[in-house]
Task: structure prediction
Amino acid sequence: MNIVMSEDGILAQYDGYFDLKELDWETYRKQYENIHRMDRILKAEGKSPDEYKVAKQADTLMTFYNLDTTEISNILQELGYPLPDNYVHKNLEYYLQRTSHGSTLSRVVHAQLANMLGEKHLSWTLYLDALTSDYQDIQGGTTGEGIHTGVMAGTVLVALNSYLGLNFSSERLKIAPNLPEHWRKLSLNFHFRDNFYTLKVTPEYVKIVVDGREGTVDVIVRGKEYTVKRGIWKEIPLH
Result:
């Protein structure tokens, strides 16, 4: 598989992307203020957005949103591509500077990646924009045409997958909380592999109780395995 990558570890959106022109984003922000639909602005000026390094939404970064970072790194290394330190962080910064967020879903992807990389303030800013996108009508009038159910679901998934750190991809439930700094508690119920879980997470601990056919269930919290007895609350400190 041919992967186009810069020496800094930036994944090209497509072959030839690095040859495109850079856009003077600051000038356009001063002139238009709302530049979410940069593609339409450029066309109105008689220019083609295809000539510039500009994205309407998260494109290349969707790779790190959909797949585990370790899995991506393993694939790239197996293909023979050297990976610089912090290459995921570099990709986030690079494409964040070249994305207009013309889709509300764009902020969902960027918020999750920012939280994953420890950029909590950036993550919350993007998440709050996504969370209130219809209430604030940040697209400039589109909410009147219908609410954005995709971004609604996306904000729920960020809370579960990123801030709460739920992972259902293996036989055992994995939990790796990374709450926004001002969140005090997150609670929810869910089913997983024939068991019903009640979970409460704070910055200090994870509390979990399980109801199901099995007498005990093993869960993994921040990489460490714990056994939870059916019907009995298990409190696991996070520090």
Q: What stands out?
A: The mean pLDDT is 89. Residues 149-163 form the longest helix (15 residues). Strands lie at 166-167, 173-175, 186-192, 195-201, 205-212, 216-221, 224-229, 234-237.
